[in-house]
Amino acid sequence: VNLKAWLAVLLFAPGLGAGAPAAAKLALASTRPLVFGKFIASSGGTVIIAPNGGCTRGGNVVLLPSSTSSAGFLVTDKGSKNLALIVTLPSNTGVVLTSGANRMSLTGFSSDKGLTPILQNGSLALSIGATLNVGANQPRGKYTGSIPVTVDYQ
Amino acid sequence: MFTKSIAAQRSFKLSLLASIAVFGAVASAPAVSATANATASADVITPIAVTKAADLAFGKFAAGAGGSVTVNTGGVRSQSGVVGVGGTASTASFSITGEANATYAISFTGSSTELTSGANKMPLALFSDLTGAGATSGNVLTGQLSAGGTQVLYVGGTLTVAANQAGGSYSGTINTDVQYN
Description:
The complex is a heterodimer of chains A (154) and B (181). Chain A is mainly beta and 154 residues long. Chain A has one helix at 2-17, and strands spanning 27-32, 34-40, 45-49, 55-59, 62-63, 71-76, 83-88, 96-99, 102-111, 118-119, 123-134, 141-153. In chain A, strand 8 (96-99) and strand 9 (102-111) form a beta hairpin. In chain B, 14% of the residues lie in helices and 43% in strands. Chain B has one helix at residues 2-27; strands at 33-44, 49-54, 60-62, 67-71, 77-80, 83-86, 92-97, 103-107, 114-117, 120-129, 142-144, 150-161, 177-180. In chain B, the strands form 3 sheets. In chain B, strands 2, 4, 5, 7, 9, 10 and 12 form a 7-stranded antiparallel β-sheet that branches. Chain B has a 3-stranded antiparallel β-sheet with strand order 11-8-13, with no helix packed on it. In chain B, strand 9 and strand 10 form a beta hairpin.
């Protein structure tokens, strides 16, 4: 009798699970790097990449002709419909670009789909922008860093 | 027999409860999440700068019946018509510094098109190159800095001298503007 009971529950469990998000299939992949391009620091300022990829400057930074892009991510799940997500972007502290010992901080992260988008039909593309804070006479160099983004089901 | 059966039923209920408890634990576990990292990059570039290293000088001459004096980009002077040419001739040169191997645009906007001495004037035509190879016409409009981030721009000119051009010390300005492109 015990064995039958366990078997019934085991068979039953996947059925109950059908109403929940498709567990363990939620995936997030980086599809495009965040590129601030080339600029001269001068007395400092900001370089802003909007989620749509537009590049603008603030302060005394001088932008130079170069290609730029917002960060791209792709959220996928196995064909589930209308699942509400929570997108967690980096906070305004902690994410920096570095070139040797030199650093520039990233703030003001934003997503073109907001922070609580709906995942429809199994995939959702996110574009992420941010503001790069450039110091006065920021030393020349190629600065790189990493932007962690997390998605959860609500 | 009867006693055994009750025991079996109790056991079944317990196992069912246990199973529900397990399932409940699964259902209330944290929602699944996924994390990914995008790379980010920025290139901070050395500002481009230009400084004068030498002035353009045509030296001394007498107008005579009029003519012209040319100093090529290699610093060599030639003339026609004018007489008594002397003094030191030199090509203007500009030192350009910036990011290694960067390309840039050159503009001479705002440069003098004539030299003046009070109210007297002589038309001036400028030409340039990046080699000092003796050009006598044309302007270089783009350059590329060396691996060390430097380049020299040479500017020569041709001065048109009128017959009986009034004596005096004539001067003008060469304005060189460089921008990354």
